[in-house]
Amino acid sequence: MKRCLELAALGLGKTYPNPMVGSVIVHNGEIIGEGWHHKSGEAHAEVNAVASVKDKSLLKDSTIYISLEPCAHYGKTPPCSELIIKHQIPNVVVGCVDSFSEVAGKGIEMMQKAGASVKIAVLEEECKVSHKRFFTFHEKNRPYIILKWAETIDGFIAPLEQEFGIPFWITSPEAKKLVHKWRTEEASILVGTNTAEKDNPALTARLWVGNQPLRIVIDRKLRLKNSIQVFDDSAKTIVFTEKHKDNIESTEYQIIDFSNFQSEILEQLYKRNIHSVIIEGGRKTLQSFIDANLWDEARVFVGSANLEKGITAPILNTKPKFEEKVSTDILKWYSNGAKY
């Protein structure tokens, strides 16, 4: 099952709206097949694992391990439970049950009725963490929310005044590269008006190879100029606003009610099948999601410099789960009490 999780992680950021799943087939104590879900619309992990077995006759005397319950419904691909039954694989080991209503135990029941021995909840907690985005989306009807920011040793995220389009860098180049990697792993990335206006970020993953996230900008009064980078058509952008504006090229304007804008935005992302969002600031936007208790984890860099005065960092009323060193920076990981 640990190998299943390693394989599943290879699909991080590429399988939306599907979960990332890994599968291993074992015969007489030896691995004879492996697979993972590469991309939505393509073969699932079990299909790839079975396809990788050279001698298919061995399947009738093998065990298949899967990090998530095999699907039981017809989507873009046939049910994987039927595939396992078709090849008469007698033993099935499942990391965790799928909470998605289309599956939710149906795959396990289907295989058991066909005579397979099914064992569940093997490394269950680790598997749930692997599927945290997928489970959060289907159980809470919203994307998995990651907060990210960088702050100085004395607790500031930016100076009080800064030149347009020139971000104030707190962290090392290594930390910046890591952030770009994170962007490829999530379905979308969000900033507020002030960050888009002052920093003029591209919100793309230029320093890492992978998928580009959907760019999301909050611009209540439509203050932002069309010349800033988030409107450069290099990736799709959604602007949440209270004013009407026609869509332009790769930019969509969506009117929402700003009396409860955090929930409104999350509802719109849920409708669009967006499973995760990384919120990169600024302080007002980040703190608003914290105060509304709408976040799942936070990743906070602490740089090596002091600023003495400036815009204070958001406040999380919880202690980090763990810390690690990234070049000259400290990276603190927080969790909002999520079970995943």
Describe the structure.
The structure is a single chain. With 340 residues, this protein is an alpha/beta fold. Helix content is 25%, strand content 23%. It contains 10 helices and 16 strands. The chain has helices at residues 2-8, 45-51, 80-86, 106-113, 124-130, 132-140, 173-185, 193-198, 261-271, 283-291; strands spanning 22-27, 30-36, 63-66, 91-94, 117-119, 144-151, 156-158, 188-191, 214-218, 237-241, 251-255, 276-279, 297-302, 311-312, 322-326, 329-335. Strands 11-10-9-8-12-6-13-16-15 form a 9-stranded mixed sheet. Strand 8, helix 8 and strand 9 (214-218) form a beta-alpha-beta unit. Helix 3 (80-86) packs parallel to helix 4. The longest helix is centred in the middle third of the chain and has 13 residues, at 173-185.
Q: How would you concisely characterize the structure shown here?
A:
The protein has 10 helices and 16 strands. The chain is of the alpha/beta class.
List the SSEs and their pairings:
Blueprint: H1 2-8, E1 22-27, E2 30-36, H2 45-51, E3 63-66, H3 80-86, E4 91-94, H4 106-113, E5 117-119, H5 124-130, H6 132-140, E6 144-151, E7 156-158, H7 173-185, E8 188-191, H8 193-198, E9 214-218, E10 237-241, E11 251-255, H9 261-271, E12 276-279, H10 283-291, E13 297-302, E14 311-312, E15 322-326, E16 329-335
Parallel strand pairs: 3-4, 4-5, 6-12, 6-13, 8-9, 8-12, 9-10, 10-11
Antiparallel strand pairs: 1-2, 1-3, 7-14, 13-16, 15-16
Helix pairs in contact: 3-4
